[in-house]
Amino acid sequence: MEKLILSGLLAVFMATTALSNTTSIIEPIRRMSTLEMRDTIAQPTTYIFEGTKGRELILSLWAGNLIAELFSPSGQRLGVIEKEVSQWVGVLPESGLYRVRITPKLDKTSFVLEREFKPIWTYNSERQISIAQGAKDVNIKINLSAYQIQPLKVQGKAGQTMIVTANDVDVAIESPSGELLDQGKVEAWAKLPESGVYRVLIVTSKSRQISVKIAWR
User: What is the mean pLDDT of each run of 10 residues along the chain (217 residues)?
Assistant: First the structure.
């Protein structure tokens, strides 16, 4: 009788453990309620949105160290988005709920993901910014067309605070390892976690000349 009770308890424990393990690996699912998604994740996460057959979708990833996979309502993988291929552009094959599964390459990463039905965003070639020895800031002017992203490469030292300001555009700061440190309209700033080459992203939806100031303190 005692052996039977122990066997029963063991079976219940194993079943409970199995259920607990199954529950712990369920990935979060979130709705993309806006056209632009900014989030920080530490595990694979799925984002869903409504799509209509025949509409052209532009899904853009312009910050973050991760992989984004786009799936149709029927489960077909339509494309993979990462820094090397920063956009998926195509016509939606069916109507229903589309899924974007985002997997971080680091233990924790922040990102900016956009879905839109507008002209394609294009990356300009990276531009190296030279800084005079002992200088605490640098001012540059750049000319951008509509829907362009200009990456600027600047040297930074661990412990410094980098402040980037630009007139009426989005700006972002990425670490040498590709982590998004800060992003904002007109201004972004971050305390630098390591020494190396940082990327400053200047993003505009209109053709204009942009004044950019990068300062350290």
Answer: 44 45 71 88 94 87 84 95 79 93 89 77 90 88 92 95 94 94 95 96 93 94
Residue 163 near residue 148, CB atoms below 8 Å? no
> Alpha-carbon distance 9 to 47, whole Å?
40
Question: What pLDDT score was predicted for residue 82?
Answer: 80
Helix, strand, coil proportions of the chain in percent (round to 5)?
10, 55, 30
Q: How far is CA 65 from CA 12, 61, 168, in A?
A: 42, 10, 26
CB 51 within 8 A of CB 92: yes
> What domains, with CATH codes, occur in the chain?
29-117 (2.60.120.380), 122-216 (2.60.120.380)
pTM over 0.70: no
What's residue 25's pLDDT?
65
Q: What is the residue-wise DSSP string for 133-180?
A: TT-SEEEEEEEE-TTEEEEEEEEE-TT-EEEEEEEEEEEEEE-TTS-E
Q: Is 119 helix (H, G, I), strand (E, B) or coil?
A: coil
Q: What span, in angstroms and rounded, lies between the C-alpha atoms of 176 and 173?
A: 10
